[in-house]
Amino acid sequence: MAKDVEVGGEFQAKDYHDPPPAPFVDAQELTQWSFYRAIIAEFIATLLFLYITVLTVIGYKSQVDPDKGGQDCDGVGILGIAWAFGGMIFILVYCTAGISGGHINPAVTFGLFLARKVSLVRAILYMAAQCLGAICGCGLVKAFQKSYYNKYGGGANSLADGYSTGTGLAAEIIGTFVLVYTVFSATDPKRNARDSHVPVLAPLPIGFAVFMVHLATIPITGTGINPARSFGAVVMFNQDKPWDDHWIFWVGPFIGAAIAAIYHQYILRAGAAKALGSFRSSSAM
User: Fold this and answer.
1) Got the DSSP string for 17-55?
2) pLDDT tens readout for residues 219-240
3) What is the model's pTM?
């Protein structure tokens, strides 16, 4: 815990201690209402995320459809789609961070699990809730606009023509690394303790990370960086091409999340050096 003191007109943080790692398996969580409340929050947040963003994608494709007199410059464009995804993440992380941590993404949950921020039980149930929420969100879009949903691709991710599988996989790995690295940095308790006099709204940089990654990778993969988002869309659209490419949107984000977790915890936070120092100290005793 850190306490702020002002010395010579400057703020300094002291008495900081890293929070203890989450247990690998915590059966006690299953007896707590707050645990189930968090799972519900992840389900609803992911449902809303997919509902708004997939509607935006379908609306844009409808507006630029040449069969309806549309032109490439009509509609919100790639910029607007990126804002929809980034803006919704900002809103939903802000709303749910105090309840579930505001993951809304199995890759984020996986990265936090590797960093011992959440238990295995919580990670698995979060991912299940996120995937189910994504399916329901896309299901709502399909129920309301079935003809548009089927005609304009249902927001399903697939590799764009002209790009190799390796390029698509790399785009998902790097894009997810940017997102999960931002999550770790924005929520780092050590940073919050050190800079506690500086107001930092964690959902803002996280939302901007999603926005920037979408700008870069929409032309390549449609931007996954969230396996639940890709899974919900492909389940409801249910066509061969998105299913054939679907593995990219699980493997890429999980690799990117793992690299981000290792980089932040063991390089930037020097977790490896601390672990080695602790081992040496124990051996010398």
Assistant:
1) -PPPPPPS--GGGGG-HHHHHHHHHHHHHHHHHHHHHHH
2) 999 999 999 999 999 999 999 9
3) 0.86
